[in-house]
Amino acid sequence: MNFRRVFFILCLFILSILAIFSFIYYTNKYVKYTNPKEGYTLKYPDDMDIHNSFGHIKTIIANEDVEIEIYYDNFKNTVSSPLAYMNYSNKFLKNNKDHIKELEKTTYVNGKRTHLLKWKRSKLTKVQNDKNYYVSAEIINNKYEVYTIFIKSSKPFKTSRDYMNIIRSFKISDKNEHMNNASTNISFKNKNKILNEEAISFFKEYFLENNGLKWGIYENTAPKDFDFLNALEKKLNYSFKFLVKYQCFSSGGFPMEEMVNAHNNNRHVVLTLQTMHLDGTDNSSVMYDILKGKYDIFLNSYAKDIKSFKHPIMFRLNNEMNGDWCSYSSYYYSKDPDIFKEVWKYVYRIFQSNGVDNVLWVWNPHDISFPGFKWNHYLNYYPGDEYVDIVGLTGYNTGTYYRGEKWRGFNEIYIPIYNDYMKHFKKPFMITEFGSNSVGGNKEEWINEMFSSIKEFKNIKIAIWWNGIDWDSNMNPARIYRLDQNENIIHLFKDGLKDYK
Length: 501
Known about the structure:
The chain is of the alpha/beta class.
């Protein structure tokens, strides 16, 4: 037997062994998962665990380095479609400074048209085991239904087999609508916090032991100046104990003078920090930059000033995050709500490291998620019980000034959101901002319905009316939310508020 023949046989033997090991690894080490409620099966590596507490929102299969999320969206009777979903979900790629697309193609998974996308971003130095390598497969079942397999990893995918074995294993099956395995059974509770005595007393008085509703107002002149608000309150014969103050990175830091002015006038402030710029600075990378430490100086200074203020503050960070009108929404950040949660927790830890003990954290989605896709569901943005003290509700009757909008009554907005939140949160609620437009319906009837119904929502402890106007691009009033719009509305509020003194 010559050397070449021996070498050839040896190579065949080695290749056979490798093939056997490959077969074992990619076949026998996979576990089948079945979701009868949403109608699919999928195989995943057996070193991963299933987390199904998010039920109808998503299924999570994960280990330390890799997370698989599976979403089912049905767009029947909506304005969307699977094709629109694929297009709109992936517009974050327009930011090619932070997102590097490595693969995009149309393929087929078990006969179903599939949009396959692979991308990466740079590591976030402030996130432990950051999963910055992504793959998503959007699998179209029919003109209404689409399934999404969203995979992220802390390490680069060595070969396409790392993710394609999972994706190719996905099969659509018959649904069993009567199954209970897809119910959302998460429940969020309060945890003990380290607060100063004044903050503890405040929390008890207005949230934990308060059986009645208190009212607040957003009025853009206050708390800097109280002349206008005092005159309005005189007309209403009511004093609003709670105010809203908005800030961003270009606001110049903690508003100490205004906060002291509020305290001296016996008012409490919902201090809203939105991590963006309003001075023309590019906002496209801000959330990533926070998690790389680039805003540490601002955030540490802000925390120190809050600590020195000493008095209770309701701190609302990045409200309405499930709306794409907010530059900090996951719509702009790899369609990955974990980026929002990591920013929240990072800011929280900065406050902790600076000894802040006078802050109650208010987490506040919008009542409508836009886009209305499962990956953008409001619960995907919840950072965890220890990071949240109060759950904020926000739902506006925007009226019909803009095309596609509809008039919504108070109960139409707040009964569904209240009932849904009550299923998941054992925390006190507040309506952090709300109002009704005048365009498209009867605002006076809306206000009457509000005052007759809101007292039934026992877990809502504070309601804050947004007393302002949204203007269109030509500076015409598009949404008139003011409660002092005319004498009739002032009278309705005066009459309604007399029960809340």
